[in-house]
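New to this. Please check this record:
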Amino acid sequence: MLTINSIKNGIVIDHIKSGQGIKIFNYLGLDKADYSVALIMNVESNKLGRKDIIKIENNLELDFTVLGFLDPNITIDKIQNETIIGKVKLRLPDKVENVVNCNNPRCITSIERNIQHTFYLVDEKTGEYRCKYCDEIYKVSDIQIK
């Protein structure tokens, strides 16, 4: 049995869809961290069947918008003295800026380099976003993060 100790002070990113933990780990740049970090993959879960967990022994400022965009089912536990002092439940954000690029070659963002890539949520159930400039629709599951 694998044992991962609790953290004293920091955060736990929990309920990550199985297999997606590495994407969040890399996005947050945790491979370059100089503090303790644990990425636990394919953990059994009553709620999800299987899930990933990231434990970070540090109090990071996280962009909840981006994390909610990557996986809206994530919960973030804030830990102090080995006790959960706060819990944040994420959801799909209404607007996402400069997290993903529009791949439509006719979109103004493919020509003009200084324009922010902006997407608006159009369907929360299917996770569909629409480009602000060209109206191209993207599903969260199909989008590649910058």
Notes: The radius of gyration is 17 Å. The chain has a mean pLDDT of 87.
